[in-house]
Amino acid sequence: MADSIDESKNVTVTEEDLENKSKGELIKLAGQLRDRRNELNQMASERASARDDLNAKTREKVDEAQEHREKRDELNEQVQEHKDQRNELNAEANELFDKVDNLKNDLELDEGTSVEQLKEEIEDLEFKQQTEVLSSEDEKELIEKIETKREKLQEKQEKLDQGGDLEELKEEAEEVRSEASKHHQKVTELADEAQKHHNEMIEAYREADEIRDEADEKHEEFVDAQEAADQHHEDFVRVQKRLRELDKKEEEQERSQREEKQEAAREEAEEIYQKFKEGETLDTEDLMKLQKAGKL
């Protein structure tokens, strides 16, 4: 809320005051106007200083907000760069994993019994052949099973040999995916930091608006005080002008009175001089009047 001026301390001057007040009263009134004007000018100066301080703080907050804006934009650019790199790496990793899957399908490595399982089955069958008493027919059947599994094992091992690049390809795909994850983590970190600067920018602008409102209010207070000071100065000048008019009028009256006295003295001296010329005896006072009038 604006700090209003105590109008009860203001001094007013009407045309009636200028016309009717005595010179002494006007001198007193001029002093009151001068003192109140100076007081209001001091008040206006203090309010202007407070306003300027608030405007400076507003600029500081705006500059602070701008710094956060620039930092946010810079971080968002980095976020976009890491997003692009992440997306490129994920696309590359997807292609590599697709190649891994295709290679597995080509080699049929995911179908049937694994190499280790085949080896265990062969060992079990061979152990059975060596330790159990079998009929010729059962032994023949067992030998055929062993041979069949050995053929499958050999086929599997040959496919594994042919797919020697599979593990390297899979490892490369996982490395690329890991690199993409690092960029994703960076995206998250930078985005959080950018959001922090965005929030701080909003807060700085909000504070700048609040301080600017205070500065505007203080400026209104300054204008009120300055206008009141200017009005008192104008009235002071009016009273001073009236005092000069009265001084001039007094001077004219005094000059007129002096001239009247001088004229009366000249006329009296002329009469005395005529008496002197006619031979009348003059007293000392008459002689002094003649001397003063330059007749002797």
TrEMBL record:
Q: Where is the composition biased (Basic and acidic residues)?
A: 48-85, 175-194, 211-222, 229-280
> Acidic residues: which segments have biased composition?
164-174
Fetch the InterPro entries from UniProt: DUF7121 (IPR055545)
* Organism encoding this protein: Haloarcula quadrata
Top-level taxonomic group: Archaea
The protein here is known as Uncharacterized coiled-coil DUF342 family protein
Tell me the segments the record calls region Disordered: 1-24, 37-85, 154-194, 211-296
